[in-house]
Amino acid sequence: MQSEDDAAEFHEFFEAHHRELSRLAYLLTGDTDAADDLTADAFVAAWHRWGRVRKADQPLAYVRRIVVNLAASRVRTLVRERARTGLLGAMFRDRSDDPDIPAVLDVRAALRRLPMRKRACVVLRYAFDLSEQETARVLGVSVGTVKSQTSRGVAELEKALGAWRSPPAHPAGRAGELR
Fold first, then answer.
1. Angle between helices 4-29 and 59-85 (to 10 degrees)
2. pTM exceeds 0.85 for this model
3. Per-residue pLDDT tens digits for 84-125
4. Half-sphere exposure (CA, 13 Å, Cβ side) for 38?
5. What is the DSSP letter of 169?
């Protein structure tokens, strides 16, 4: 059972980091509702392990890892469920509650297509500006793995985004060209 001091300390941690962890969950899942659920589940797990979390070298990294693991588990479950019903593509929708520019939607769609480890590396490195060492610690992998997965993830994003941005070639030559 947690003490009142534990509850106050956890509440401070929650207030300081809820928004960031929710953003992480959103970038990993691409779904606002799922991100809210994952964030809540991560804080519940953190509360149940608060003694360990609080004593960790970096409590925020500990809870980030919980979010990443929950997101990965959710994605694996969804993939299995969708594969059984043949509706895998239905989980990817380009919809936003806020007005977004097309480029943001393209990046979000491309991120959702990356495998979870690459996506987590790219998101933690670039959206959360974590170092390679911090990212490795959060994900429980080596720095070399972070480097390779981030590099490959960025390359895949560049390829996907380049393909979306390239104008289609006109079979008859340049538009407006007179012969």
1. 40
2. no
3. 555 444 444 555 455 556 777 788 888 889 999 999 999 999
4. 30
5. P
